[in-house]
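A quick word before the example. In earlier lectures we treated sequence and structure as two separate objects. From today on, think of them as two lines of the same record. Here is Transport permease protein written that way.
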Amino acid sequence: MKGFFAFVRKEFLHIFRDRRTLLVLIGLPVVLIVLFGFAISTEIRNVNIGACISGEDISVTRLMDKIDRSEYFTFKGWYSSGQDIDQAMRRGEIDAALVFSDGFSAGLMSAEGSEVTVVADAVNPNNASMEVMYLTNIIYGYFQEEMSGYGAGGASLSPNLRMLYNPQLRSSYNFVPGIMGLILLLVCALMTSVSIVKEKETGTMEVLLVSPVKPIGIVFAKMIPYFVVSCVVLIITLLLTIFVLHVPIEGSFFWMILVSLLYIILSLGIGLLVSALVKTQIIATLIIGMVFLVPVMMMSGMLYPIESMPYAFQLIAQIIPAKWYIEAIRKIMIEGVPFIYVIKEVSVLLGMTVVIFTAAVIKFNDRIE
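And the structure line, produced from the sequence above:
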Protein backbone atom coordinates (compact mmCIF):
# COMPACT_ATOMS: atom_id res chain seq x y z
CA MET A 1 0.00 0.00 0.00
CA LYS A 2 2.91 2.34 0.77
CA GLY A 3 4.28 1.73 -2.70
CA PHE A 4 0.91 2.60 -4.24
CA PHE A 5 0.70 5.94 -2.44
CA ALA A 6 4.33 6.60 -3.35
CA PHE A 7 3.37 6.29 -7.03
CA VAL A 8 0.40 8.61 -6.50
CA ARG A 9 2.68 11.18 -4.83
CA LYS A 10 5.20 10.84 -7.66
CA GLU A 11 2.53 11.54 -10.28
CA PHE A 12 1.25 14.58 -8.38
CA LEU A 13 4.79 15.98 -8.24
CA HIS A 14 5.21 15.32 -11.95
CA ILE A 15 2.06 17.30 -12.74
CA PHE A 16 3.04 20.23 -10.52
CA ARG A 17 6.53 20.39 -11.98
CA ASP A 18 5.27 20.45 -15.56
CA ARG A 19 4.16 24.07 -15.94
CA ARG A 20 2.85 23.51 -19.46
CA THR A 21 0.53 20.76 -18.26
CA LEU A 22 -0.70 22.94 -15.41
CA LEU A 23 -1.29 25.79 -17.85
CA VAL A 24 -3.42 23.53 -20.04
CA LEU A 25 -5.34 22.04 -17.12
CA ILE A 26 -6.12 25.33 -15.42
CA GLY A 27 -6.19 27.65 -18.42
CA LEU A 28 -8.35 25.45 -20.64
CA PRO A 29 -11.61 25.88 -18.67
CA VAL A 30 -11.14 29.65 -18.56
CA VAL A 31 -10.44 29.90 -22.29
CA LEU A 32 -13.37 27.68 -23.29
CA ILE A 33 -15.81 29.39 -20.92
CA VAL A 34 -14.86 32.82 -22.27
CA LEU A 35 -14.85 31.58 -25.87
CA PHE A 36 -18.21 29.81 -25.82
CA GLY A 37 -19.81 32.14 -23.32
CA PHE A 38 -18.98 35.42 -25.04
CA ALA A 39 -17.22 35.06 -28.41
CA ILE A 40 -19.20 32.13 -29.83
CA SER A 41 -22.84 32.99 -29.31
CA THR A 42 -26.11 32.18 -31.05
CA GLU A 43 -27.74 35.24 -29.53
CA ILE A 44 -28.41 38.28 -31.68
CA ARG A 45 -27.41 41.81 -30.70
CA ASN A 46 -27.80 45.22 -32.36
CA VAL A 47 -29.58 43.95 -35.46
CA ASN A 48 -30.28 46.85 -37.84
CA ILE A 49 -33.97 47.01 -38.69
CA GLY A 50 -36.15 49.18 -40.93
CA ALA A 51 -39.88 49.68 -41.36
CA CYS A 52 -42.17 50.23 -44.33
CA ILE A 53 -45.64 51.84 -44.18
CA SER A 54 -47.56 54.28 -46.34
CA GLY A 55 -48.28 57.43 -44.37
CA GLU A 56 -47.92 58.10 -40.67
CA ASP A 57 -49.32 55.77 -38.02
CA ILE A 58 -49.00 56.39 -34.29
CA SER A 59 -49.32 52.70 -33.37
CA VAL A 60 -46.54 51.74 -35.76
CA THR A 61 -44.35 54.54 -34.42
CA ARG A 62 -44.84 53.32 -30.86
CA LEU A 63 -44.09 49.74 -31.94
CA MET A 64 -40.83 50.75 -33.65
CA ASP A 65 -39.83 52.77 -30.57
CA LYS A 66 -40.39 49.68 -28.45
CA ILE A 67 -38.28 47.58 -30.82
CA ASP A 68 -35.52 50.20 -30.87
CA ARG A 69 -35.40 50.29 -27.07
CA SER A 70 -34.70 46.56 -26.90
CA GLU A 71 -31.09 45.37 -26.65
CA TYR A 72 -31.49 43.26 -29.76
CA PHE A 73 -32.46 45.76 -32.47
CA THR A 74 -31.42 49.20 -33.73
CA PHE A 75 -34.00 51.08 -35.78
CA LYS A 76 -32.36 52.57 -38.90
CA GLY A 77 -35.26 54.35 -40.57
CA TRP A 78 -38.41 54.29 -42.69
CA TYR A 79 -38.68 52.94 -46.23
CA SER A 80 -41.42 53.64 -48.72
CA SER A 81 -41.63 50.28 -50.51
CA GLY A 82 -40.54 46.68 -50.50
CA GLN A 83 -38.04 47.45 -53.25
CA ASP A 84 -36.36 50.06 -51.04
CA ILE A 85 -36.07 47.46 -48.28
CA ASP A 86 -34.50 45.00 -50.69
CA GLN A 87 -31.96 47.58 -51.83
CA ALA A 88 -31.18 48.54 -48.21
CA MET A 89 -30.47 44.90 -47.38
CA ARG A 90 -28.24 44.55 -50.41
CA ARG A 91 -26.26 47.62 -49.27
CA GLY A 92 -25.95 46.15 -45.78
CA GLU A 93 -27.90 48.97 -44.13
CA ILE A 94 -30.45 46.69 -42.48
CA ASP A 95 -30.71 43.00 -41.61
CA ALA A 96 -34.47 42.82 -41.12
CA ALA A 97 -37.58 44.90 -41.74
CA LEU A 98 -41.24 45.15 -40.85
CA VAL A 99 -43.79 45.87 -43.60
CA PHE A 100 -47.12 47.16 -42.24
CA SER A 101 -50.44 47.05 -44.03
CA ASP A 102 -52.20 50.30 -44.93
CA GLY A 103 -54.25 51.77 -42.11
CA PHE A 104 -52.58 49.59 -39.52
CA SER A 105 -54.07 51.31 -36.44
CA ALA A 106 -57.59 51.39 -37.88
CA GLY A 107 -57.31 47.74 -38.90
CA LEU A 108 -56.62 46.71 -35.31
CA MET A 109 -60.27 47.47 -34.48
CA SER A 110 -61.80 46.13 -37.69
CA ALA A 111 -63.06 42.66 -38.48
CA GLU A 112 -60.40 42.22 -41.18
CA GLY A 113 -57.58 43.05 -38.75
CA SER A 114 -54.13 44.42 -39.51
CA GLU A 115 -51.14 42.73 -41.03
CA VAL A 116 -47.40 43.06 -40.45
CA THR A 117 -44.82 41.13 -42.45
CA VAL A 118 -41.43 40.30 -40.99
CA VAL A 119 -38.67 40.35 -43.61
CA ALA A 120 -35.23 38.96 -42.72
CA ASP A 121 -31.98 38.43 -44.58
CA ALA A 122 -31.74 34.63 -44.58
CA VAL A 123 -28.22 34.34 -45.99
CA ASN A 124 -27.44 33.23 -42.45
CA PRO A 125 -30.51 31.08 -41.70
CA ASN A 126 -29.76 30.73 -37.98
CA ASN A 127 -29.58 34.49 -37.47
CA ALA A 128 -32.67 35.02 -39.61
CA SER A 129 -34.75 32.56 -37.59
CA MET A 130 -33.63 34.16 -34.34
CA GLU A 131 -34.42 37.66 -35.64
CA VAL A 132 -37.91 36.58 -36.73
CA MET A 133 -38.53 34.91 -33.38
CA TYR A 134 -37.38 37.96 -31.39
CA LEU A 135 -39.40 40.36 -33.54
CA THR A 136 -42.48 38.17 -33.34
CA ASN A 137 -42.20 38.14 -29.56
CA ILE A 138 -41.98 41.94 -29.38
CA ILE A 139 -44.87 42.40 -31.82
CA TYR A 140 -47.11 40.01 -29.87
CA GLY A 141 -46.28 41.88 -26.69
CA TYR A 142 -47.17 45.13 -28.41
CA PHE A 143 -50.50 43.71 -29.59
CA GLN A 144 -51.37 42.61 -26.08
CA GLU A 145 -50.63 46.07 -24.68
CA GLU A 146 -52.41 47.86 -27.54
CA MET A 147 -55.52 45.69 -27.44
CA SER A 148 -55.85 45.46 -23.66
CA GLY A 149 -57.81 48.70 -23.61
CA TYR A 150 -60.39 47.40 -26.06
CA GLY A 151 -61.69 44.39 -24.17
CA ALA A 152 -60.74 40.73 -24.04
CA GLY A 153 -62.15 40.03 -27.51
CA GLY A 154 -59.38 41.92 -29.27
CA ALA A 155 -56.67 40.75 -26.89
CA SER A 156 -57.57 37.12 -27.50
CA LEU A 157 -56.54 37.47 -31.14
CA SER A 158 -52.83 37.62 -30.26
CA PRO A 159 -51.06 34.40 -29.21
CA ASN A 160 -49.04 34.33 -26.00
CA LEU A 161 -45.54 32.89 -26.39
CA ARG A 162 -43.58 31.45 -23.47
CA MET A 163 -39.93 30.38 -23.46
CA LEU A 164 -39.42 27.91 -20.63
CA TYR A 165 -36.13 27.52 -18.73
CA ASN A 166 -34.30 30.08 -20.88
CA PRO A 167 -36.66 32.99 -21.57
CA GLN A 168 -33.87 35.28 -22.81
CA LEU A 169 -32.62 32.62 -25.24
CA ARG A 170 -29.07 32.97 -23.93
CA SER A 171 -26.68 30.65 -25.77
CA SER A 172 -24.56 30.12 -22.64
CA TYR A 173 -27.42 28.06 -21.17
CA ASN A 174 -26.93 25.65 -24.08
CA PHE A 175 -23.13 25.76 -24.28
CA VAL A 176 -22.16 25.34 -20.61
CA PRO A 177 -23.15 21.64 -20.23
CA GLY A 178 -21.36 20.93 -23.52
CA ILE A 179 -18.24 22.79 -22.37
CA MET A 180 -18.20 20.75 -19.18
CA GLY A 181 -18.42 17.51 -21.16
CA LEU A 182 -15.64 18.63 -23.49
CA ILE A 183 -13.27 19.89 -20.79
CA LEU A 184 -13.60 16.86 -18.53
CA LEU A 185 -13.05 14.45 -21.42
CA LEU A 186 -10.01 16.41 -22.59
CA VAL A 187 -8.40 16.57 -19.14
CA CYS A 188 -9.17 13.01 -18.12
CA ALA A 189 -8.82 11.00 -21.32
CA LEU A 190 -6.06 12.95 -23.07
CA MET A 191 -3.85 13.64 -20.06
CA THR A 192 -4.21 10.13 -18.64
CA SER A 193 -3.48 8.35 -21.92
CA VAL A 194 -0.52 10.57 -22.75
CA SER A 195 0.91 10.15 -19.24
CA ILE A 196 0.79 6.35 -19.37
CA VAL A 197 1.99 6.11 -22.98
CA LYS A 198 4.88 8.44 -22.14
CA GLU A 199 6.13 5.85 -19.63
CA LYS A 200 6.09 3.25 -22.41
CA GLU A 201 7.74 5.53 -24.92
CA THR A 202 10.61 6.50 -22.64
CA GLY A 203 11.11 2.94 -21.38
CA THR A 204 10.36 3.75 -17.74
CA MET A 205 7.26 1.56 -17.66
CA GLU A 206 9.46 -1.56 -17.51
CA VAL A 207 11.24 -0.06 -14.52
CA LEU A 208 7.94 0.63 -12.77
CA LEU A 209 6.68 -2.89 -13.43
CA VAL A 210 9.49 -4.48 -11.38
CA SER A 211 8.29 -2.64 -8.27
CA PRO A 212 6.24 -4.50 -5.59
CA VAL A 213 3.09 -2.73 -6.76
CA LYS A 214 0.98 -4.69 -9.24
CA PRO A 215 0.92 -3.34 -12.81
CA ILE A 216 -2.74 -2.35 -12.68
CA GLY A 217 -2.06 -0.62 -9.36
CA ILE A 218 0.60 1.47 -11.08
CA VAL A 219 -1.89 2.51 -13.72
CA PHE A 220 -4.55 3.47 -11.18
CA ALA A 221 -1.92 5.36 -9.19
CA LYS A 222 -1.25 7.45 -12.31
CA MET A 223 -4.97 8.03 -12.81
CA ILE A 224 -5.78 9.27 -9.29
CA PRO A 225 -3.95 12.61 -9.63
CA TYR A 226 -5.84 13.34 -12.85
CA PHE A 227 -9.09 12.47 -11.09
CA VAL A 228 -8.26 15.05 -8.41
CA VAL A 229 -7.20 17.60 -11.01
CA SER A 230 -10.43 16.96 -12.94
CA CYS A 231 -12.45 17.66 -9.79
CA VAL A 232 -10.59 20.97 -9.41
CA VAL A 233 -11.28 21.77 -13.07
CA LEU A 234 -14.96 20.94 -12.53
CA ILE A 235 -15.11 23.38 -9.60
CA ILE A 236 -13.36 26.10 -11.65
CA THR A 237 -15.80 25.56 -14.51
CA LEU A 238 -18.82 25.80 -12.22
CA LEU A 239 -17.51 28.97 -10.56
CA LEU A 240 -16.96 30.59 -13.96
CA THR A 241 -20.40 29.43 -15.06
CA ILE A 242 -22.16 30.94 -12.06
CA PHE A 243 -20.19 34.16 -11.51
CA VAL A 244 -18.97 35.02 -15.03
CA LEU A 245 -21.66 33.69 -17.36
CA HIS A 246 -24.41 34.04 -14.73
CA VAL A 247 -25.96 30.71 -15.62
CA PRO A 248 -28.10 29.57 -12.68
CA ILE A 249 -28.09 26.05 -11.29
CA GLU A 250 -31.79 25.32 -10.98
CA GLY A 251 -31.55 21.69 -9.87
CA SER A 252 -29.70 19.74 -7.20
CA PHE A 253 -26.05 20.72 -6.92
CA PHE A 254 -25.32 17.38 -5.23
CA TRP A 255 -26.68 15.27 -8.09
CA MET A 256 -24.97 17.44 -10.68
CA ILE A 257 -21.61 16.86 -8.97
CA LEU A 258 -22.32 13.13 -8.63
CA VAL A 259 -23.13 12.75 -12.33
CA SER A 260 -20.00 14.76 -13.19
CA LEU A 261 -17.84 12.47 -11.03
CA LEU A 262 -19.25 9.45 -12.85
CA TYR A 263 -18.41 11.08 -16.18
CA ILE A 264 -14.89 11.85 -14.95
CA ILE A 265 -14.36 8.18 -14.06
CA LEU A 266 -15.70 7.17 -17.48
CA SER A 267 -13.31 9.59 -19.19
CA LEU A 268 -10.39 8.19 -17.18
CA GLY A 269 -11.37 4.74 -18.43
CA ILE A 270 -11.28 6.01 -22.01
CA GLY A 271 -7.77 7.34 -21.41
CA LEU A 272 -6.69 4.01 -19.95
CA LEU A 273 -8.14 2.10 -22.91
CA VAL A 274 -6.36 4.33 -25.42
CA SER A 275 -3.06 3.97 -23.53
CA ALA A 276 -3.40 0.18 -23.70
CA LEU A 277 -3.90 0.27 -27.47
CA VAL A 278 -1.11 2.60 -28.61
CA LYS A 279 2.62 3.00 -28.04
CA THR A 280 3.32 6.67 -28.80
CA GLN A 281 2.02 9.96 -27.39
CA ILE A 282 1.30 11.35 -30.86
CA ILE A 283 -1.02 8.48 -31.76
CA ALA A 284 -2.74 8.72 -28.37
CA THR A 285 -3.33 12.44 -28.92
CA LEU A 286 -4.67 11.86 -32.43
CA ILE A 287 -7.05 9.14 -31.28
CA ILE A 288 -8.43 11.25 -28.43
CA GLY A 289 -8.73 14.26 -30.73
CA MET A 290 -10.26 12.59 -33.77
CA VAL A 291 -12.24 9.71 -32.26
CA PHE A 292 -13.53 11.43 -29.13
CA LEU A 293 -13.19 15.23 -29.08
CA VAL A 294 -14.49 15.94 -32.60
CA PRO A 295 -17.59 13.74 -32.15
CA VAL A 296 -18.18 15.42 -28.77
CA MET A 297 -18.29 18.84 -30.43
CA MET A 298 -20.25 17.81 -33.53
CA MET A 299 -22.57 14.94 -32.54
CA SER A 300 -23.20 15.16 -28.79
CA GLY A 301 -25.78 17.93 -28.96
CA MET A 302 -23.23 20.47 -27.73
CA LEU A 303 -23.50 22.71 -30.80
CA TYR A 304 -26.21 21.16 -32.98
CA PRO A 305 -29.43 19.32 -32.08
CA ILE A 306 -29.12 15.58 -32.58
CA GLU A 307 -32.71 15.37 -33.80
CA SER A 308 -31.78 17.46 -36.86
CA MET A 309 -29.01 15.07 -37.96
CA PRO A 310 -29.41 12.24 -40.49
CA TYR A 311 -30.60 9.01 -38.91
CA ALA A 312 -27.21 7.32 -39.24
CA PHE A 313 -25.52 10.10 -37.28
CA GLN A 314 -28.27 9.96 -34.66
CA LEU A 315 -27.37 6.32 -34.10
CA ILE A 316 -23.66 7.16 -33.81
CA ALA A 317 -24.50 9.87 -31.28
CA GLN A 318 -26.00 7.25 -28.95
CA ILE A 319 -22.56 5.70 -28.30
CA ILE A 320 -20.88 9.03 -27.51
CA PRO A 321 -20.57 9.27 -23.69
CA ALA A 322 -20.64 13.07 -23.71
CA LYS A 323 -24.10 13.03 -25.30
CA TRP A 324 -25.61 11.37 -22.24
CA TYR A 325 -23.65 13.52 -19.81
CA ILE A 326 -24.67 16.75 -21.54
CA GLU A 327 -28.33 15.73 -21.56
CA ALA A 328 -28.22 14.88 -17.85
CA ILE A 329 -26.48 18.13 -16.88
CA ARG A 330 -28.89 20.22 -18.97
CA LYS A 331 -31.86 18.63 -17.24
CA ILE A 332 -30.42 19.10 -13.75
CA MET A 333 -28.74 22.48 -14.20
CA ILE A 334 -31.09 24.32 -16.57
CA GLU A 335 -34.46 22.61 -16.19
CA GLY A 336 -34.04 21.82 -12.50
CA VAL A 337 -35.61 18.36 -12.73
CA PRO A 338 -35.34 15.78 -9.90
CA PHE A 339 -32.76 13.00 -10.20
CA ILE A 340 -35.42 10.46 -11.17
CA TYR A 341 -35.74 12.15 -14.58
CA VAL A 342 -32.05 11.56 -15.43
CA ILE A 343 -31.89 7.91 -14.35
CA LYS A 344 -31.78 6.82 -18.01
CA GLU A 345 -28.76 9.03 -18.78
CA VAL A 346 -26.96 8.02 -15.56
CA SER A 347 -27.64 4.33 -16.22
CA VAL A 348 -26.14 4.59 -19.71
CA LEU A 349 -23.07 6.40 -18.35
CA LEU A 350 -22.67 3.77 -15.63
CA GLY A 351 -22.94 0.95 -18.16
CA MET A 352 -20.38 2.61 -20.43
CA THR A 353 -18.02 3.06 -17.48
CA VAL A 354 -18.17 -0.64 -16.58
CA VAL A 355 -17.67 -1.77 -20.19
CA ILE A 356 -14.81 0.63 -20.96
CA PHE A 357 -12.93 -0.02 -17.71
CA THR A 358 -13.31 -3.79 -18.10
CA ALA A 359 -12.01 -3.66 -21.67
CA ALA A 360 -9.16 -1.34 -20.67
CA VAL A 361 -7.99 -3.50 -17.76
CA ILE A 362 -8.15 -6.70 -19.83
CA LYS A 363 -6.27 -5.10 -22.72
CA PHE A 364 -3.67 -3.58 -20.43
CA ASN A 365 -3.01 -6.91 -18.68
CA ASP A 366 -2.73 -8.64 -22.07
CA ARG A 367 -0.12 -6.09 -23.20
CA ILE A 368 1.90 -6.57 -20.00
CA GLU A 369 1.86 -10.34 -20.31
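Notice the following. The longest strand covers residues 73-79. We will return to this example when we discuss secondary structure assignment.
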